[in-house]
Amino acid sequence: MWSKCLIHLRAALNIVQPDVREPIYVTADFTFFGCMVIYSAISIATIVTFNIRLDYKELFVDAFANISHIIVTSLVCNVTEMIKLCYKHYESMLEHAFMKNYADQYTISIIKNVKASYLEVTFATDRLVSVFGLTVALLYLRTIVAVVYCLVVIATGDSTPRLRLYSMLLVHSVLPIVISLCCDSAAKASEDLTDKCFELDVRTYTNGFVESEMESLKELLVTQKPNLTADGFFTTNRPTLLSAVSAAATYFIVFLQFWQAGIQNVN
Q1: Given this model, what pLDDT does residue 66 score?
Q2: Region 196-207: what's the mean pLDDT?
Q3: Closest among 148, 130, 140 to 178, alpha carbons compared
């Protein structure tokens, strides 16, 4: 599936810019995806139970989990950046064609190329979600669990080293932020492309086919918007970050209430 995502992106780039040479990252499909899910599950279990007392075992598990999520974040951000660049390139192509007032047939060919390339990018987006969607969802879940755990340990005065807690907070907070910002920027580029298409004036062309192709492109942009989600659970954008922070704060407050109530009962 991952290789198909790259194939669709390459096809999209070749349609609108045949001589482009973007870096492509090739990875084993199911092995890579399976490892990401396993590492996420191990990391969540480690943070929740935290019964491993030997430092080297803790570091070993954390290193695998963190490295896997860093790799996932890097791949997702690279692909979403390529998707965003494609959208920006479509916008530039259409704006340039209408500003220069090219011949009707040339403008029609540009619009058709944009449509074909946009469909390839849409297929690539779907492949990206199918490969990494569940892993991203687990990453967000792991982040909430880690943040709540660190806050609870700090609040209860546990003997866990503070440096470890702060590093855990940093690593677990940065990766979801980066993924959300990259996916959000790609979605914003798609919205800008749609707005630009509705702003362009096709009345300068006497050929009715230009207007027909432009209407077809507008319909495509409205109906086939990029669906960057965490395997359908939620959309990876900035509001999701606020929701994750709110969830972590809620769980932390609830725990503190139970903890304080328990102390009062003991006393």
Answers
A1: 66
A2: 70
A3: 140
Contact indicator for 204, 99 with CB cutoff of 8 Å: no
Taking the C-alpha atoms of residue 121 and residue 86, their distance in angstroms, rounded to an integer, is: 8
- Answer yes or no: are the C-beta atoms of 165 and 150 closer than 8 Å: yes
Chain centroid to CA 42: 22
pLDDT digits (tens, 9 = 90+) for 167-200: 667 767 777 888 888 888 888 888 888 888 888 7
Which residues does 24 contact at the CB level (< 8 Å), separation at least 6? Answer: 6, 9, 10
CA dihedral 21, 27, 33, 38 (to 10 degrees): -130
Token pair listed for 185? 């920027």
Beta pairing partners, 235: 229
Between 56 and 68, residue with greater pLDDT: 68
What three-state secondary structure class fits 51? coil
* pLDDT for the residue numbered 107: 78
Residue 117, helix vs strand vs coil: helix
Residue 83: count of CB within 10 angstroms of its CB: 26
Q: How far is CA 74 from CA 59, 69, 103, 182, 204, in A?
A: 22, 8, 42, 10, 44
Amino acid at 147: V
Task: Measure the CA–CA gap between 255 and 77, rounded to whole angstroms.
Answer: 34
Cβ-in-10-Å burial (0-12, 13-18, 19+) of 124 comes to: buried
Q: What angle do CA 131, 47, 135 make, to 5 degrees?
A: 5
* Sign (positive or negative) of CA dihedral 15, 20, 21, 22: negative
Of 23-27, 77-81, 92-96, 221-225, the one with minimum mean pLDDT is 23-27
CB atoms within 10 A of CB 38: 13
